[in-house]
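Sat 14:20. Reprocessing the chain from the morning session after the first attempt stalled halfway. Input below, unchanged.
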Amino acid sequence: MEINVITNRGANLYLNNDFFKFLAKLEAHHLGSQQKRIVRFRHEALEKSRRGEKLRYRVHFHEPTSCMIDLPDWLRDQRNQMTGPANDAKMCIRMINSKSPGVMLDLEDSLVNNELSLLEGHANIKAALYGYLKSFAHEPETIGDTNSVVFTRVRGLHMGQTIPNTVRTNHYVPASLFDLAYHFYNMDLDRLRHPPCIYIPKTESAREALWWREAFSRIEQLKKWKFGTIKCMALVESYPLAYQIEEFVHILQPYLVGLNLGRWDYMASFIDFNYNNGVFPDRNSIPTDVSFFQNLRLRMAQVCHFHGLLAIGGMTALYPSRKDKELNDRALSILKKDKDNEASCFMDGAWTGHPDQNEIAVEAFPEPNQLDKFPGEEWWNPDLGSFPELSDLPVTEEGTREAIKTCIQYRQGVLDGRGASLINGYMEDLATDRIYRTMIAQRIDHGVHTEKEVELMFAEIIALYRNCLDGALETLRLIKTRQFNPR
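Finished this time. Tokens:
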């Protein structure tokens, strides 16, 4: 069987027999059934938390020789990793040509989850890895000489992919497995500048590392590659995983080269797992050095450097602008402060999403890495669960209205084919939507909605939120009207 997809950019993308055979061999290794158990375990862990069960640290391994990573030279400098959607060829080329030490081409949050975007993304990634990716938007662009390490972020284990199958129709496989299979089934190692590198998203427990280890090992066997050929970094973007990262590192050791703090998804997960412990403040009032980030940064640096891994910081959401000098200056000033802080926490690099951010990010980290530096013994098991400063930050009606409006704009962007949208100077993606919708639900449930903490009856709460929603929709309608009917 062969499926041919004609994209709106004129490319032919194929799902052919070789791919389906490769996928079937991977799936035969029980990776599909294991994924279902992982999803079930995630739901159970969240339910336990909602019932009041507190998360605790898992056992860690204090014998360096039992889990010491030998980081290859080509990966030792990752002071900045530029990220963006893989289906945008022009953006992919500009990220790779930006001189950023690392580039992460994304098939997940910044990409709309449909077949066309996904297959275009895969095609662009393969072309980028082999060096022949071209863009013909406005004017032709190609990849120049570069030392950037290119990572591929596949979709997470919470997602599924329905595909046609020679035996059954509407056959369901884990989205992660589909992406790994499509990425690797016809990969030629001899044509790559460096070994293949995967970014693992949305992990919620150390046991999930077993799934990824099994998948990588099985791929290497099928491709007849040397054990440990595939390299990966993993995002720490869930509250439960923060307590289990040493065990996660130990399990994934043959493949793992670093951890990354995906802080906006981590914030969403933090709210989820602390849903009944008070009301979360307005998102944009929370400083990036708040202790629930800072404590985890220092823990990550301690664990990673103890085992020879890189610790990479997160994305600064406020974007620079080449048209608005005031916004640009503010964005770059916030970026510098943020990256200086991450460097002071002994991290080895960070994420950015715009070429104008690269130089500032790289300069914030004084050396190619800080692997020889450690925060101190107290950061093995820091307090990740109580943050009194949050109670001093505002919970306002204006913050609620902004949350509703941003969710609407983000979802409109998804309907228009964008997985991430620039909204009021901030690059917002699925993590923003997760933060805001959980925050809104929490405010409705807890009944605190204004800076005066006025107690409202349930009917009044619903009326308030409907009013906020109507106001946000009207504001956005007027903005759209002005865009289409300029004076």
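The CA atoms of residues 209 and 252 lie 6 Å apart.
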